[in-house]
Amino acid sequence: MIEKRPISNLIGHLMLIVGIIIVVFPIYYTFVASSLTSTEIVRPPMPLAPGGRLAENYGEALAGGVERVVGVSLERLLFNTFVVAIAIAVGKIVISFLSAFAIVFFRFPLRMAFFWMIFITLMLPVEVRILPTYKVIVDLGLIDTYAGLTLPLMASATATFLFRQFFLTVPGELVEAARIDNAGPFRFMRDILLPLSKTNIAALFVILFIYGWTQYLWPLLVTNDSRMNTIIIGLRKMVDFADASTPWNYVMVTAILAIIPPVVVVVLMQRWFVKGLVETEK
Amino acid sequence: MQRVVFPNKILPYILVAPQIVLTIVFFFWPASQALYQSVMRENPFGLKSGFVGLANFSAVLADGSYLNSLQVTVIFSVLTALLSMGLALLLATAADRVVRGQTFYRTLLIWPYAVAPAVAGMLWLFMFNPAMGTFAYILRRNGFYWDPLLNGNHAMVLIVVAAAWKQISYNFLFFVAGLQAIPKSLIEAAAIDGARGTRRFWTIVFPLLAPTTFFLLVVNTVYAFFDTFGIIHSVTGGGPAKATETLVYKVYNDGFVNLNLGSSAAQSVILMAIVVALTAFQFRFVERRVHYG
């Protein structure tokens, strides 16, 4: 604080409150809609206070309401999305941790070639090579499988790069001490490297969980069977403005359930999330 | 570089194997296929394909709809980046100014980061859909004929707002980090010299934020180019009349809907070149930022 200026402080609070209204309002609007009947939702203006159908809407949507519309239950959609998000986050962390470990703590022929092979994938998101990647999945018979949904998204370099940067800061004395004590590479990894990397792993987990949860283009392509859809694809299939029979109350329930889990993860793991975001992107 | 290493000979290969296998199968192989297909053309029955050199590229670059989609993408990216970064900078300076409650505000402002782009698009569509959206209703009642399903400009506004909304959290967190990194002594010195708040902002804070701003500009451009497919697919479907068809949407549309493999592959290769250029740009900048710090 340079000067004591209560008015400037007040303006700051006001701006932040307006900002929060902008940021949170669309979610609040959808939440309100999820507590109304379908006819109330389609007849503007919609009330801005929650209605009385909250429990009924969520209960019915979970008990087969959504299944009648898109042919797959809401629980199944949530389960699929959880599997995809966790598999991508854990898979990516494990394979990146191992490859960064190999590249930093060993010397072997082709080491730099491997490093550059991985590093180059930093550049190309799956969006720019969708058609040929899709063809690989078809050839491998991975359409409508969890492997097909997650494996191509694990092949990226950000996490490897982050672990490599971190491992390079681990003092060589620690490695020396481990070797003098006759600890092999796995012992060193488990007892020294893993505990040191805990915060990095937590930070990466939040970022990658969100990344996996919010995927759209890839799940859209590799799932034909609606039972393998993620909740976001399921939601997209339910939304039809031209069809008068669209059950808008279930749509809103599905939207809220697609939003809540990643928001909870980000809010509860806020400290690691902010650290991970600001550090991985550097 | 680590000086102390383990002596094992075989183990490191086993450790890098999973990542290398995934990279080859899902990255190098498809990318090489895209390159290969971009110089081939299938005959109309899809039975034979022949080498056509750079014909696919010249066809794509001469195609009016491709140039249109390039223009759409550039407009969309610039508007999204400006709107989102402008709002985020305002909020970040406000957060830097208030004494209490910073954590509380931050907790609420990071929500949109966790919302999928496709869902963000649908949330805004719920509010602004001409058939049922409350805000579309309010606009109409005040004599403004709002219809993103028929008017290309309205559709563009809608996807820009949804895309910018989703990105506010990210930009906010980086601007807050950037503001906190500015030495307080500089601002105090300016205050002693009699510079008021606004003047201090434009002559000291804003120039020192330039590296952060520049970095965010690149990140937001990449986001608008590649991560907004979900928004466009779920809100406008590229329409009306291709008014919101971005480059990535066009690759998808030509490859999966129109099944024009050669053209789609050539477009993929052009997109790869754009990403490589943007990334190289960003890395040069990251080098510079290290020297700043």
Automatic annotation (TrEMBL), chain A:
Keyword line? Cell inner membrane, Cell membrane, Membrane, Plasmid, Transmembrane, Transmembrane helix, Transport
Write the signal peptide boundaries. Answer: none
Query: Which SUPFAM superfamilies does the annotation name?
Result: MetI-like
| Taxonomy, superkingdom | Bacteria
Which InterPro entries does UniProt cross-reference here?
MetI-like, MetI-like_sf
Task: Write out the annotated subcellular location.
Answer: Cell inner membrane; Cell membrane
Identify the Pfam families for this entry: BPD_transp_1 (PF00528)
Principal place of residence: membrane
Q: Give the GO cellular component terms, alphabetically.
A: plasma membrane
**One GO-annotated biological process of the protein:** transmembrane transport
Q: Gene3D superfamilies this protein is in?
A: MetI-like (1.10.3720.10)
Q: How does it sit in the membrane?
A: Multi-pass membrane protein
Q: Where do the TM regions start and end? A: 7-29, 82-106, 113-131, 143-163, 199-218, 248-269
Xref: PANTHER family: ABC TRANSPORTER PERMEASE PROTEIN MG189-RELATED-RELATED, SN-GLYCEROL-3-PHOSPHATE TRANSPORT SYSTEM PERMEASE PROTEIN UGPE
Report quaternary structure and partners: The complex is composed of two ATP-binding proteins (UgpC), two transmembrane proteins (UgpA and UgpE) and a solute-binding protein (UgpB).
Q: What role does it play?
A: Part of the ABC transporter complex UgpBAEC involved in sn-glycerol-3-phosphate (G3P) import. Probably responsible for the translocation of the substrate across the membrane.
What family does the database annotate?
Belongs to the binding-protein-dependent transport system permease family.
UniProt name for this protein = sn-glycerol-3-phosphate transport system permease protein UgpE
Organism in which the protein naturally occurs: Sinorhizobium americanum
UniProtKB/TrEMBL annotation, chain B:
Name any Gene Ontology BP term. transmembrane transport
Q: Provide this UniProt record's keywords sorted from A to Z.
A: Cell inner membrane, Cell membrane, Membrane, Plasmid, Transmembrane, Transmembrane helix, Transport
The way this protein sits in the membrane is described as: Multi-pass membrane protein
Where is it localised? Cell inner membrane; Cell membrane
Which family would the database say this protein is a member of?
Belongs to the binding-protein-dependent transport system permease family.
Oligomeric state and interaction partners are given as:
The complex is composed of two ATP-binding proteins (UgpC), two transmembrane proteins (UgpA and UgpE) and a solute-binding protein (UgpB).
Q: Which PANTHER family match?
A: BLL4140 PROTEIN (PTHR43227), SN-GLYCEROL-3-PHOSPHATE TRANSPORT SYSTEM PERMEASE PROTEIN UGPA (PTHR43227:SF9)
- Functional summary from the UniProt entry: Part of the ABC transporter complex UgpBAEC involved in sn-glycerol-3-phosphate (G3P) import. Probably responsible for the translocation of the substrate across the membrane.
What is the name of the protein in this document?
Answer: sn-glycerol-3-phosphate transport system permease protein UgpA
Query: Organism, per UniProt?
Result: Sinorhizobium americanum
Q: Which gene encodes it?
A: ugpA
